[in-house]
Amino acid sequence: MDTFETVMLGMTAEKTVTVTPDMTIGHFVAGMPQVYATPMMILHMEMAAGSAIADCLPAGYVSVGMEVNVRHLAATPIGRTVRTIARVIDMEGKRVLFAVEAWNDERKIGEGTHRRGIVKLEEFERRFAVREGMAIWRRSGRA
Description:
Blueprint: E1 12-18, H1 25-28, H2 38-54, E2 61-72, E3 81-92, E4 95-103, E5 108-120, H3 121-127, H4 130-139
């Protein structure tokens, strides 16, 4: 499958969230401020990027994150709204490059690029023993 058949330059999607205490760096790292964590911003950027192309992928295919190059520009406290935006800016084979941004109510808080690979889910899970790994994890009592 060639991305050029289904994915188009300029495709976009957005994800909007309200910052909750469990999205803050202080939630993950003791003694840190209660502001929107960089890993959460990246997660929301990745989710927007995946959404931008999900509907045009053939049945059985998904996109997975493979590269992130992002700057976190400003803090956002609990209760504020964050909007992440992803736009397709380049395609090469089964790889899609997105420009990503994050905004709060006042300003841009993040920007960069994110690359996703398009994979056939069944083959991907088999290759990396995803289901087998989940079974081992469940047997260990961690699930």
